[in-house]
Design goal:
Strand content: 15-25%
Helix content: 25-40%
Number of strands: 14
Number of helices: 10
């Protein structure tokens, strides 16, 4: 944990900049100690044994140390720290862990839960010579889509013949005010169905990690955890893992740009994956479309409006029409459906 790495069987270290742990209570620890193997079940998935831990070991769950190293704060108002505080006092690991079966949630989204090797195989079958990944935890508006199409065009200008987008939305735990996975997947699929994104140029898959909201630490994880999927490029944006300060109004917990800068500076640790910094897009009120903002060729600043997430949520919840050209109509309809269901 102190080195932000995990070591494989060959002694090689790989980036693991956020803690992935399994906690147990004192009672569970007492019951499990001394056993050579421990079965893992998840009642929300099935009653079957899903995995086995060989030669288990137990460690103190050092919540304060883990929190301060990972998040830079000890505030229990941070949503992830709040969850960690409810964990048991011990963590369990072992010499190895083996899976007994392919885990299925039977929630209508298992077809998107692709293993890294499966993503890599799809890219090879489509004769891709580049795979650029986009980490996303929100619905996509046309500014995102503009960025994704522009990235493909820029890669082709560099000589690539068939770059593929890995649209890889986060599929694990998120805080309550984020749009749930099922609605996000429906929204993303709608953009493929209506041609906003080109299906032949896109692999849509679920990335199973939970969200940590740990700023630069998590940005590093977003890229490093996808390396085995065969990606060649990774798009990183402005503050992709940040949040408001849990205790101080009008203050962000992390600098908006530190995550991107960290990832660019540590690019050599990503097994050859190149980092593609995010271009900022905003709504051009005159042209009624999303356009890149702040570039030498962009329109004057006064032509643009930045549509915040809170404003977008309010419009969707109130059933208002979106600004023309902001989002795919099919995608907007699904977003409205979700927020109106929350009334």
């Amino acid at each position: 944990m102190n080195m932000n790495t995990v070591t494989d069987d060959n002694g090689e270290r790989h980036i693991c900049s956020v803690p992935i742990t399994q906690y147990v209570t004192a009672e569970q620890k007492a019951a499990l100690e001394g056993h050579k193997k421990i079965a893992i079940r998840c009642k929300e998935v099935s009653d079957d044994v899903l995995a086995v831990i060989e030669e288990p070991e137990f460690f103190d769950n050092r919540k304060e140390e883990i929190s301060t190293k990972t998040f830079g704060t000890r505030s229990t108002l941070h949503p992830k720290i709040e969850r960690m505080e409810k964990q048991g006092d011990f963590l369990i690991s072992g010499k190895s862990m083996r899976f007994c079966q392919r885990i299925k949630y039977n929630d209508g989204m298992d077809q998107y839960r692709l293993l890294p090797a499966e993503i890599k195989k799809i890219a090879e079958e489509r004769n891709a010579d580049a795979v650029y990944a986009f980490q996303v935890r929100n619905p996509l508006h046309n500014g995102h889509c503009l960025l994704l199409k522009d990235t493909r065009e820029q890669l082709m200008k560099k000589g690539y013949k068939n770059p593929l987008l890995l649209l890889h939305p986060l599929g694990g735990w998120m805080k309550d005010d984020d749009v749930p996975l099922d609605y996000r997947m429906r929204q993303h699929q709608a953009l493929l169905d209506d041609g906003t994104l080109i299906p032949e140029h896109t692999i849509l898959a679920i990335w199973p990690s939970p969200m940590y909201y740990s700023g630069p630490n998590e940005v590093l994880w977003h890229a490093s955890s996808r390396v085995n999927a065969g990606i060649t490029h990774f798009i990183t944006g402005r503050d992709p893992a940040g949040m408001k300060h849990p205790e101080i109004d009008d203050m962000h917990l992390y600098d908006h740009w530190h995550g991107q800068r960290l990832l660019v500076s540590q690019q050599s640790l990503l097994n050859g994956v190149q980092v593609v910094p995010f271009k900022v897009a905003a709504y051009n009120q005159k042209n009624k479309q999303m356009e890149f903002f702040g570039t030498p060729t962009s329109a004057p600043k006064e032509d643009f409006a930045f549509i915040s997430g809170s404003k977008m949520r309010k419009m969707a919840k109130d059933g208002e029409d979106q600004p023309e050209g902001f989002m795919s109509p099919a995608g907007w309809e699904i977003l409205c459906e979700y927020y109106q269901s929350q009334k």
